[in-house]
Amino acid sequence: xxxxxxxxxxxTVFYHPTIGGRIVGGVATTIQDLPWQVAxxxxxxxxxxGILVAPRVVLTAxxxxxxxxxxxxxxxxxxTGSTTHNAGGTRVAVSSRILHAQYQDCETxxxxxxxxxxxxxxxxxISPAATIALWDxxxxxxxxxxxxxxxxxxxxxxxxxxxTLRRVDVPVIGNVQCRNVYGSIITTRTICAGLAQGGxxxxxxxxxxxxxxxxxxxxxxxFGAGCARAGLPGVYASIPGYRAWIRQNAGL
Length: 252
Prior knowledge:
The longest helix has 8 residues, at about 175-180. The strands form four sheets. This protein has a six-stranded antiparallel barrel. The protein is globular. It contains two helices and 18 strands. By secondary structure, it is mostly beta strands.
């Protein structure tokens, strides 16, 4: 699936993550270390990540589960409790999906409001899978605070995928600094994270996966320009910024 682009206020074109992606600069890990990580499957193939936040509720990015990708829920499943995305754990059907009403699914639309809830057809909270707590409304993360992002995929931009779950630690970058790069798309609904010199990042197929600070969910992998490029941090949908919406649509 091709990248979708948008222009920031300076007219610079940046890119949405596409389904398929990678963790850059990270290390192999296990589901026991990150038991809330789930794989979003289309016809059995992993395309995105997600986060188990209740026994039958998954949070992910809206762009991972659009009507364009999934005209019917019959092709949409999640796999929980497995270090590998293609076997093991528990595979569960999705009974309903809720995309943020203000998310726009088009090739040149802004990637704002990139959050969705999946309600599952059965309990997915089966060991080693486990749910994760959420940060509260209006929580502010200081620049430099380190969080962990995880997912399946290659270890370099454009590389081949990884079957094994990987993780990488990246520090928060303040919104003022991040807005200088991405423009007005950076708001209280987003968190930016990365290294000034690049080298560590989430990337396309990690879309919808967790950005975790102090063992609580802080963000959802949303978009960025390339992968792990210097001066171009990853951008995450902010859990505190969407907390009221999550309560309304996920009951949490």
